[in-house]
């Protein structure tokens, strides 16, 4: 068996193994200029909770851009897959909780756990184009979650002044040294209850446009 196949069979690495990369990311952040663009004061814990949405390729510096109190009041909805386990371990080191599941795996339990987090005034973080894309295309998940729970959706983006792109499906972004990292928060959006399929699609487009706008997406999708 090849080394690659053996590696892919490992479903859970020791948590301590993820500490060095997280420390490296924090060190890189310390060496760069950072800014939080929060015109509506959404960082204030008295305004919690939100269902936050962020594109998959902006996740590298997403956890470390928030202060400790915000990370403690955030739970990330993460796929129940093996790759999702790696992400869950990383966010755990950053002080962020995780809810495991998706529409195809552990859907009911994930919805129940997500609702409990929100009811406890804990933000729920979602990547609406994950885990496999298409890139910059919003799924219906956040719309349905917001409609069922009554909590607002908050589009978030982590933008880099200059960056490299990996050759992955999402073109994962890695900022270049000495640049600027900006955490951008849009206006919270309230989704009405009891939506028809057509209304769900309309709200999906609204959220996609809002998130693309603050993410500075200029390419034609």
Q: Could you give a short description of this structure?
A:
The chain has 221 residues and is of the alpha/beta class. The chain has seven helices and nine strands, in the order ααββαβαβαβαββββα.
What secondary-structure arrangement, pairings included, does this model have?
Elements: H1 3-9, H2 19-30, E1 33-37, E2 51-53, H3 68-72, E3 74-78, H4 82-93, E4 97-100, H5 107-119, E5 123-126, H6 141-149, E6 153-160, E7 163-165, E8 173-175, E9 180-185, H7 197-214
Parallel strand pairs: 1-9, 2-5, 2-6, 3-4, 3-5
Antiparallel strand pairs: 6-9, 7-8
What does this structure look like?
The chain has 221 residues and is an alpha/beta fold. The chain has a domain at 47-158 and 186-215: Tetrapyrrole methylase, N-terminal domain (Cobalt-precorrin-4 Transmethylase, domain 1). The chain has helices spanning 3-9, 19-30, 68-72, 82-93, 107-119, 141-149, 197-214; strands at 33-37, 51-53, 74-78, 97-100, 123-126, 153-160, 163-165, 173-175, 180-185. The radius of gyration is 17 Å and the shape is globular. The relative contact order is 0.18. The mean pLDDT is 88.
How far apart, in Å, are the first and last alpha carbons? 40 Å
The average pLDDT is 88
Number of separate strands: 9
The fourth-level CATH homologous superfamily of the domain at 47-158 and 186-215 is Tetrapyrrole methylase, N-terminal domain
**Broad CATH class of the domain at 47-158 and 186-215:** Alpha Beta
- Sheet with the most strands, sense and barrel status: 7 strands, mixed
Shape estimate: globular
Provide the helix percentage: 25-40%
- CATH architecture classification of the domain at 47-158 and 186-215: 3-Layer(aba) Sandwich
Individual helix count: 7
Using only CA atoms, what is the Rg?
17 Å
Question: SSE order, as H and E?
Answer: HHEEHEHEHEHEEEEH
CATH-defined topology of the domain at 47-158 and 186-215: Cobalt-precorrin-4 Transmethylase, domain 1
